Amino acid sequence: MSVIAGRAVSGPRQQANWDWRAACNFIAGGAGAGLLIVGDIAGSAPRPTVLLAGALIGFGLACVWLEIGRPWRALNVFLHLRTSWMTREAVAAVLVYAFCGGAVLLGSPVPLRAATLAAVAFVYCQARILTASRGIPAWREPLVVPLILATSLTEGAGLTLLLSFTLARAVPASAAWMLFGLLAARWLSWRLYAARLNSGTVPVKARAVVDALDRPLSLAFHGLPAALILAAAVLPEAAGAAVLAAALLAVAGGWLLKSRLVTRMAFTQGVVLPITPVRGGGLSGPGARPGWQ
Amino acid sequence: MTRYAMIADLRRCVGCQTCTAACKEANATPPGVQWRRVLDIEVGEYPAVRRVFIPTGCQHCDQPPCMEVCPTRATGKRADGIVTIDYELCIGCSYCALACPYDARFKVDTVEFAYGVALDSEQARIDEKRVGVATKCTFCADRLDAGLATGKVPGVDPEATPVCVNSCIAGALHFGDLDDPESPVSLLLASNEWFRMHEELGTGPNIYYLWDKGR
Amino acid sequence: MATATIKSDTRRVPTYCYNCVAGPDLLNVLVEDGVATTIEPNHAGAGIHPADGRPCVRAYGLVQKTYNPHRVLAPMKRTNPRKGRDQDPGFVPISWDEALATVAAKLNDIRARGLLDEQGLPRVAATFGHGGTPASYMGTLPAFLAAWGQIDYSLGSGQGVKCTHSEHLYGEFWHRGFTVASDTVHSRYIVSCGANVEVTGGVCAVRRHADARSRGVKRVQIEPHLSVTGACSAEWVPIKPKTDAAFLFALLHVLLCDVPIERLDIDFLRDRTAAPYLVGAEGYYLRASDSGKPLMWDTRSNAPVPFDHPGAVPALAGEFTVAAAVSHHADGEVIRHQDAVARPSFAALVEAMRAHSPDWAASVCDVPAATIRRIALEYLDNACIGQSIEIDGRRLPYRPVAVVLGKTVNNGWGAFECCWARTVLATIVGALEVPGGLLGTTVRLNRPHENRLLSVKPGEDGFMNCTFNPTGLDKWIGKPTGRNAHRTLVPHVGTGPWSQALGPTHLAWMFMREAPDHWPQPTMPELWFAYRTNPAISFWQSERLTDTIGKLPYIVAFAYTLDETNHMADILLPEATDLESTQLIRIGGTKFVEQHWAHQGVVLRQKVVEPRGEARDFTWIATQLAERTGLLEAYNERINRGSALVPLKGEGYDFSLPTDRVNPAEAIWDAVCKAATAELTGGAEVRDLAWMKRSGFFVVPHTRVDWYLYPTMVEQGLRFELPYQERLLRIGEELKRRLHGQGIHWWDRQLDEYRALPEWHDVPGLWIEAVRAAGGDPADYPLWGITTKSMQYSTGANVGIPLMDEVAGNMRGHGRVILNAATARSLGVERDDWVEVRSTAGVTRGRAEPVQGCRPDTIVIPGQFHHWKTPYAKDLNFPSLNRLTTMSREALALTDATGSGADVVRVSVRRVDGPFAGDRA
């Protein structure tokens, strides 16, 4: 089946509304939130964790601010809490900052725990922002939610290790094993998601992006860091370097995944012609779904 | 109640783009922005090939995904079903464009002109409000309202009918109130086979495509 | 959405668009504070205009056209005497006074030396673009041209090779059909060989065909490429380019040889055609010895009788012996016969078609024999022979079938055969000029142009009069009167005002460069007017033609923007364009294509907005030229006699203008409005210019009976000169004698087209032969190159209008090279790749558009592009078939007897990296 279109594209096309700036919100914001969550669970130093997480989330939001058409009206983003996951994401971000601020100022674990919960909400909102995008088949797939959550936590674990090493020249084994587990969870989420997309829920070109991403993502950004963590367990002398490398790869893998998901995998729905119309004394004929077969 | 809908008779459409041009001119949309447009699609393999022209644009959905995602409530829905955008509220985040399965929303970040410089006709209608925000087909709501105010009937009187419908040289486009069983659109739907695009996505689109006479 | 500001002055101004021959159409312009902002339908036309007052997409470009910043807005003169693409003309602005004085001085010098040069050719030439439509924008210029005298209109901008040329000539000859259409309003079945009516038929045709589809009409589209019209048809049948005649002959074969004759329209054949005329052994009619009238064999008396014998029931089949008869051969030679064996011309037709079976045709045109047979029988089944219909109170035959032809089918070699076959297909089922059938809609070679029925007068042998140029011994015009020699070479084209521009206009350009043997090389005109025309782009082998234009000594171009033709001009005159000037033209009645209405009248184009810059109303320019050349009185007289649309004086009214003074444009059009409305109403109603400005148009009812020629033929007792072509046979022989007498043999192949009954010849092979003649190897050019029109992006200077480019871009193939997807794969070409298309005559480049809806052996290059000067268009890098088609010596061999060529060329395609370096935007 071949479908040709004029300049008014009828087949799915890569969305051009959100570029690297939006991707950065998912990349940095998700990683920052993940850092808050995992750092809290792993018992990382609260103040640096909060500062780094806040910086990352802030950087992501700043990128989005640069992308919107009317940046000076940005506060209007809070006006639709009832149905908009973007509004909810913004509210969650405010809560994250409020609680993080409280945690930094008060040095108390309560606001920190609240910030962690707000970070969970923030990441969840990001995932739901994608699934609510009914015009982008690769996003509206429900398995995006576990994938986004898993990668956020995985990146958070990686960042926790990197932060720990930076601050204390130490890579806690518990955090390393947590990363190992999260890598497995993310890989599983990715495989389920990829399998779902490859079952025909997205246009052909989106599937091609998935296929191209699958091998490097699985091997270089999941298999390799997992192997490095295992190596660290049996080779104590190289443990630090191996875990650090694994952490870096885990973070990079998440960022690669999200950049692909937000940009190159994001093909539009295109048109569907269920049936070709009758033309005068002729007959109707089979329809077409440009870009899907 | 009133529920406005549009009909595109695919048996009649010739892909002439008159509606596209009429919409662009009446609504003063900038280069590249086509609230109404006609797609040109080929189906099949040589020699068993068909070519179909599909008018498309905002479907003024019953459950507009654009409205659901909009963080500012700039996107709204009137009682008569027309999906609207409040340019004063919109922050231009483009989320609505991604939520729309019909590729119906546009955003330009600068004032653009056909020849690069503003023609008198463009200068007269520069609308800064529409820069940096989402725009789309309005079913010519202003025209509709003005027509209604003078007693005109949408879909019957040109003064209260969207310009794309008025302009259609093939008589392929129709407009009217679905809740009025005697409206042109109700009568056409009752007597013809039709489909709606992407209904399975739960949008409840309000452009109906006729493809055969009723059985 | 418009700005929220309420405009202090908003008004809707009615006017018209006539940018293509399928117009004119009504429209309104929304004017806000003196600025035209929006084109709208004129809904006052609902129920009057067949498309309810809705103009086509092109009209919506008029706003950008008006305010285009690239317009020429002041008169300009050239300062660089050297001309050529590579030369900067050095145009500098001058005053209107200087511009007009300069042109007038040139004209006065010419007039002083005589209108004709030493070769007897007009020293002044003029070229106007697309299908006569510039006349609807040039105000009173025709009055000035008429006052001037002889002007050469033979330097075409595409006429003959871009128009439906053979259809024009043969259609008008056979049934007063300069343009031929299906009676779509009543049709049931249409076979369309490449007629792209949904693109070129204008809004009336689009609307009518859409209505017909809703009614269930079946249209079968026969063409190599799935056009828009193919898309809208019930069935697409791909056919090898230039083999349509074989397909149509096979349809005739089925109906004539496989179907009992009783299923045809016997009454129509007997009474309204030459089918019963007896043909002798030499191919000429046997005629009564005393009266010279063609004979028929009367089955009642079992004897030969003259064609007009009362009560005769003539035979259509059989062989008969005529005791005494004469036949009229070439040059008045009368041959006497005794006991001559003869058969009705219908029997000769049956025999001529016997060899052209569907199985034979399938091997020629690549359409399955079963498909051909099915189409033939569907056509017959839908012909409703024996049925009638009431039209405006009059009962007429109802034959709702037609075969329509598109460009490249009805022009160039093979077009005669196609035009003949489709008209005969109508004839044998009685579907010619009756409701539902095949109609002519206008005349241009006969008069009056506004009513083709009035052009019908009894002629020879029971047929209509016809207006062929003489070929007889003492009457043949051996010395060309124009540079294309239309009266010398093409009898069919006649000698009316349109004839010269319809002659083989490419021959004028070719012969000015290199004349063939025994043919004097024509001089170049000393002054050439060009308006709404860009032959440097729109004609064949455009690079070579550009060079030829550069050699013309003096060019006066009425200029909208700079372009490839006026790049060579000496003076540019900016005329007030579509929305800026005033003119009254006719609407309704029956006009080009499918513009036949149930109303007729006039429509005004008015000054919707003030002209930009120094642009001036054409009527003002024409009046100035008349005054400055001392022709004011003659010019005014011409206006009074009707050059501005209608005579200003008629029965019961006289709005004549004074002839001794300059009449303001408004006064001229006021008088024309009054006279036109008076003429339409027999003097009962008179509307002035002010009324027309408010109302836009004025119409009176036009009976639909007048859409059909049949009633007129019946009233005058006339027959259609079909299917047999004795006249062509005779004049062909005469023309051969004349040309051979002058030693001219380069027109011999064309002379072979003058046949009483056409036969198939290897039409596509002529293009392969042309490759060899140009020194090429046919194997190097394995594909057919053809073109197709874009509804959005053609005519009316649309090429410089971004809105039109943008919306045209929604259609597949716009600005690209369309080719079959499998062919593209075999060439390693993907969508958007740049490809180079090469012929023996030239090369062009464009982006590829692989599609399924195209024959694997054919590529299509839509539109006419490859601009290098026209602002906006020059940056598009669109390909053009005109770069590939030859206008060199080989073009003569690709010219048919009517002087027409076709947009077909053998090409090769290869993938390249991008556009030519010099063409890069």
Quick rundown:
The complex is a heterotrimer of chains A (293), B (215) and C (921). Chain A is an all-alpha fold and 293 residues long.
Tell me what the structure shows.
The complex is a heterotrimer of chains A (293), B (215) and C (921). Chain A has 293 residues and is mostly helical. Chain A has nine helices and two strands; from the N terminus they run αααααααααββ. Chain A has one domain (20-266): Formate dehydrogenase/DMSO reductase fold (Up-down Bundle), CATH 1.20.1630.10. Chain B contains seven helices and ten strands. Chain B has helices spanning 18-26, 65-69, 95-99, 120-123, 141-149, 163-167, 184-191, and strands at 4-9, 37-45, 48-56, 75-77, 83-85, 106-107, 134-135, 173-177, 192-195, 207-213. The two termini of chain B are 29 Å apart. The mean pLDDT of chain B is 97. Chain C is globular, with a radius of gyration of 27 Å. The longest helix of chain C has 18 residues, at 96-113. Among the domains of chain C are: 165-448 and 712-735, Dimethylsulfoxide Reductase, domain 2; 762-919, Barwin-like endoglucanases (Beta Barrel), CATH 2.40.40. Mean pLDDT of chain C is 95; it is low at 1-5. In chain C, the strands form ten sheets. In chain C, strands 5-4-22-21-20-6 form a six-stranded mixed β-sheet, covered by helices on one side. A six-stranded mixed β-barrel of chain C has the order 28-32-29-31-30-33. Chain C has 921 residues and is α/β, with parallel strands linked by helices. Chains B and C meet through α1, β2, β3, α4 and α6 of B and β3, α1, α6, α7 and α27 of C.
